Every structure is written in structure tokens, then in C-alpha cells.
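TA notes, week 10

Several of you asked for a full example with nothing omitted. So below is the full record: C-alpha cells for the whole chain, then the designed sequence directly under it. When grading your own attempts, check the secondary structure regions first.
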């Protein structure tokens, strides 16, 4: 009896593992590719990822249709075949919107059933004609109760249309994800939780941009995992999403492959939350991880990893840079696994330094 039970358990084990990620929930180890970065799609090491996001398609405000800029059409339409040549299993999603896309256009589109339909139908035909496996919405951000309600209607109708399209055509369902704010509310305005839970395969939690010289007069950990006494951390955000009713296995934690550089007021006051007079290195202070490693190689700054907040920083004279290095990425991947989240995603592949952070994440996941 006992032996039979053991054998049964042994053979059930793989199925139990699959069951944990049921409802199509295969783990997500993802990254965005940003067309604006001019990073060649053919150089992406797709073996390090399960999913790649092609960013960004645009919303045409006249027609409410999803379009791809003519400068991007060649790279977008060949994106899937290009990244699949190194990893035939990688899934691709066409991402719509982005931080530079005016949120008012999404609010207007989502406010009417007829414009939502144009948006949804055009997104599906575009995804199919370009051979993507799914769609991703990056509306930054619906910011009033009305806009959140419209957002919920959009997601619900999008889900219905995707299911219908798959049934009618017999093709596998397109995936549907969205990049959302770090917390389940946008400055007290709650996201449409039920529509999100029922309509999206998962959400990308943008757990970064917490501090930057453009909006913070002190240095800070731009993507702290913990930040005691505040509501500004990856852990606070993830817990807010779970408490509001989104299951942990629908959450992917965002990793920034970039940091922010400040100018210190006093080079001897060079810790976290030190007074700053503004940005350094670039006009907005945003610097890719690749640029940060080059700065370190050229200038030999002091490098610090603070394991309490889970953030790296380095400083030399009056230049101070906060970012995620390998220690932060490692700690965050362990957090993702310990909390049984669906996975992680990075913004963006072209900002990494010779795949250092992507490999750290992938290897930590596998270990
Ligand atoms: C269902 O999908 C088919 C194929 O994409 C489409 O022609 C049809 O309009 C859809 N029906 C609804 C109700 O969305
Ligand atoms: C890490 O940062 C926190 C928050 O600023 C601070 O209280 C703590 O002393 C730092 N830890 C180390 C080891 O510097
Ligand atoms: C730091 O200051 C020294 C001496 O003024 C200067 O030579 C060096 O270029 C500075 N480095 C940086 C990164 O600002
Ligand atoms: C990039 O990484 C690979 C393997 O990790 C290494 O062999 C190669 O030298 C690195 N290239 C540069 C330019 O650092």
C-alpha cells in the first residue's frame, strides 16, 4: 500500500508542479525591448527569457486603432522570428503605450464602447499579422475613478474578444498582460481589481522610479525592495496587490536595468537620502546599467550594497548613482520565488551590461 502510494506520488509530482501554474500560468522571466534604444533585436540573448515584450505600438487618437510607427514596422514584424531563432520557446508580446504616450488618449479611447472596440479589434489583427503571442498594455496611468472604471471595461471586453477570436479561428489564445503602477491604487484611486483578475494573464508591477533627481531633492534607492516606514517599495506594492485580491501567481516584479544619478550638495554626505542639488551625468539623471558600469570602470567610485533596502549605490566626489546591481537582482529573484510570484520582468534589455543582470536573474531563478 505504502509503496503504491509512493509510486503514485512520484508519478503525480510533475502534474502537481504544473497544477501550481495552472490557468496558463507558466513562470515569467521576461524583459522589454525598447525600439527607441536602437538595440538590435538580433543581439537579444533570448535564451535568458521566457517572454519578450516588443515596445511600443501606439494608439492613434483619430481612429482609436493600434498602430506601429513606420520606422518600427520592419523590426516589429520580424521580432518574433528573430528572437525565436535563438530560443524557439520564447513567447512575444506586443506592448502598447509606454511612459511617453499621453495617458489622456487612453482615457478618451477607453471611455466609449465604440472606441474600445476599434482599439481591441485592431490590437488583435495587428498581433496576428505580426505573429506575436500576446498583447500588453502600458497606460501610464489611469488616474481617476472614472478612468479606472473605463480601464476595467476595456480589460473585460478585451478578454471576451480574445476568447472569441481563439474559438472562431482555432488559434491558441493570445496572452494579455498590462504594466501597472507599483501599488494596487494610483495615489488612493484603486485599480479595477476584479476586471484585472478575470481578464489579464498577469500584471507587470512597475516597482521602480521611486526616487529620481527630477522629483526627489535627496538621493534614494530608485527601486528599493524594502523601505521601512514608507509606502514606496517593491514589497509594499506587491503586498498591496495581493491584499486587494490579485493572486501572487499573477504578479511579475519589475527590475530596472537603469538607475538615477544625482549631484550631492556635500560630497561627504553621501548615503541614502542625502541632500542633492539635481541630476548628474544626463539631463534627467537616468543612466543605463551599462553606462553605470562604464562610470565605475572609469572613475573608481565607492560602491555600496544596502541589503536592508535592497539597493546598490556608488559615489565619487559629488556624483551619486542609485541602481540595481547583481546583489539587488539576486535578492529580488529570491523574493519572487519565496513569495510564489509568477516571475519578473526587466525594463529594458538594451540597458543591461553584456547580459550581466539578465544572467544573474536567470541563474538565481534556476538555482
Ligand atoms: C469573434 O471573432 C471573429 C474572428 O476574429 C470576428 O470576426 C468576430 O467579429 C468576433 N465576434 C465578436 C462578437 O467579437
Ligand atoms: C541601509 O539603509 C537604511 C535606510 O537608509 C539605513 O537605515 C541603514 O543604516 C543602511 N544600512 C547600512 C548597512 O548602511
Ligand atoms: C573627482 O574630483 C577629482 C579632483 O577634483 C577630479 O580629478 C575627478 O575627475 C573627479 N571625478 C568625478 C567622477 O567627478
Ligand atoms: C561578455 O560576457 C562574456 C561571457 O559572460 C565574456 O566572455 C565576454 O568577454 C564579455 N564581453 C565584454 C565586452 O565584456
Amino acid at each position: 500500500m505504502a509503496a503504491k502510494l509512493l509510486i503514485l506520488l512520484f508519478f503525480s509530482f510533475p502534474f502537481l508542479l504544473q497544477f501550481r501554474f495552472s490557468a496558463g500560468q507558466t513562470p515569467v522571466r521576461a524583459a522589454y525591448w525598447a525600439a527607441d534604444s536602437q538595440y538590435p533585436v538580433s543581439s537579444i540573448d533570448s535564451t535568458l527569457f521566457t517572454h519578450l515584450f516588443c515596445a511600443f505600438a501606439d494608439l492613434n487618437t483619430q481612429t482609436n486603432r493600434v498602430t506601429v510607427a513606420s520606422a518600427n514596422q520592419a523590426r516589429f514584424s520580424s521580432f518574433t522570428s528573430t528572437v525565436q531563432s535563438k530560443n524557439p520557446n520564447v513567447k512575444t508580446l506586443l506592448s502598447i503605450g509606454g511612459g511617453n504616450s499621453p495617458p489622456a488618449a487612453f482615457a478618451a479611447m477607453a471611455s466609449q464602447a465604440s472606441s474600445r472596440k476599434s482599439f481591441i479589434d485592431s490590437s488583435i489583427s495587428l498581433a496576428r499579422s505580426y505573429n506575436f503571442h500576446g498583447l500588453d498594455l502600458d497606460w501610464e496611468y489611469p488616474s481617476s475613478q472614472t478612468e479606472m472604471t473605463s480601464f476595467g471595461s476595456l480589460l473585460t471586453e478585451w478578454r471576451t474578444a480574445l476568447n472569441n477570436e481563439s474559438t472562431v479561428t482555432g488559434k491558441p489564445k493570445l496572452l494579455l498582460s498590462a504594466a501597472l503602477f507599483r501599488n494596487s491604487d494610483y495615489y488612493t484611486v484603486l485599480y479595477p481589481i476584479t476586471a484585472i483578475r478575470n481578464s489579464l494573464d498577469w500584471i507587470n508591477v512597475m516597482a521602480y522610479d521611486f526616487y529620481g533627481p527630477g522629483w526627489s531633492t535627496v538621493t534614494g534607492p530608485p527601486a528599493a525592495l524594502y523601505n521601512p516606514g514608507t509606502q514606496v517599495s517593491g514589497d509594499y506594492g506587491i503586498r498591496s496587490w495581493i491584499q486587494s485580491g490579485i493572486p501572487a501567481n499573477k504578479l511579475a516584479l519589475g527590475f530596472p536595468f537603469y538607475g538615477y544619478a544625482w549631484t550631492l550638495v556635500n560630497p561627504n554626505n553621501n548615503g541614502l537620502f542625502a541632500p542633492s542639488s539635481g541630476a548628474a551625468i544626463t539631463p534627467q539623471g537616468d543612466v543605463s546599467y551599462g553606462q553605470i558600469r562604464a562610470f565605475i570602470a572609469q572613475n573608481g567610485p565607492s560602491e555600496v550594497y544596502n541589503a536592508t533596502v535592497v539597493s546598490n549605490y556608488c559615489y565619487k566626489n559629488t556624483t551619486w548613482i542609485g541602481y540595481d546591481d547583481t546583489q539587488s537582482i539576486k535578492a529580488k529573484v529570491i523574493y519572487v520565488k519565496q513569495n510564489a510570484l509568477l516571475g519578473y520582468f526587466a525594463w529594458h534589455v538594451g540597458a543591461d551590461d553584456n547580459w550581466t543582470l539578465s544572467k544573474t536573474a536567470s541563474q538565481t531563478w534556476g538555482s
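Residues 51 and 179 are 14 Å apart (CA to CA). Use that as a sanity check on your answer.
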